[in-house]
Amino acid sequence: MTAVVQVKAREPMLKRVLSRVLSLFRKKKKIVLGIYGPVNSGKTTLANKISRDFLGMELGKVSRIPHETRSLQHMENIKLTIPGKGELLLDVIDTPGIVTHVSYRTFLRYGLKKEEAMIRAREAALGVIEAIKSLDRVDVALLVLDSTKDPTSQVNFIIAGNLRYRNIPYIIVANKIDLPYSKPQAVVKAFPGEKVVPISALTGKNIEELYLRIYEVAK
């Protein structure tokens, strides 16, 4: 009886792993790419760059205030063409910044009134939940980090850990290399053995390398 209970407890996890493994052998017509990361790491700036490059328009608003993106934003049917390699059809999800704690006091520091700050904090918390739920439908992920900041913060490892647990292939994007105090090598050191691509989502520097890596990981 005990053995049966143990097998049943493991069934959901085994099904998830088996489903992910089998998906690797199925050639999907379209890949869902999720953009994840902590707040203000440049996720929406990157999403806007992708959207401009392939759709000729911007996807979302960028702001210095944390949690400007508080719900999922989508781009559909993006045809990623890599010269000499081939094409890849993508749906892209830009997600709210993931944090371990949301406080309305954070928004007060940016000049918001208390009532508005409390509403934004509540929306930000819901956005974090929505971002985590979206992992269930993502095939490949980008973990976007601000390379001017300490890459060893808890939230970065939590996101990477969730991606590994779910067997979602991912690329770590060391963003903001256009800034003089950027340290992409610190990101590489913090995530040894991981795929790390330094870019500037703002200027587009090294963006073609990221597109190539997305194609390779998805294929």
Summarize the structure.
The protein is an alpha/beta fold. The chain contains seven helices and six strands.
How many separate domains? 1
Name the overall outline: globular
CATH architecture: 3-Layer(aba) Sandwich
Number of helices: 7
> Which regions have little confidence, pLDDT < 50, spanning 5+ residues?
1-9
> How is the main sheet built?
6 strands, mixed
Strand content: 15-25%
CATH superfamily: P-loop containing nucleotide triphosphate hydrolases
Total strand segments: 6
Radius of gyration: 18 Å
Numbering strands along the chain, what is their spatial order in the largest sheet?
Answer: 2-3-1-4-5-6
Explain the overall architecture.
There is one protein chain. This protein has one domain (28-98, 133-218): Rossmann fold (3-Layer(aba) Sandwich), CATH 3.40.50.300. Helix content is 42%, strand content 19%. It is built from 7 helices and 6 strands, in the order αβαββααβαβαβα. It has helices spanning 2-25, 43-55, 104-108, 114-133, 154-165, 184-190, 207-218, and strands spanning 31-36, 73-82, 86-94, 140-146, 170-175, 196-198. Strands 2-3-1-4-5-6 form a 6-stranded mixed beta sheet, sandwiched between helices. β4 (140-146), α5 and β5 form a beta-alpha-beta unit. Residues 1-9 have low confidence and may be disordered.
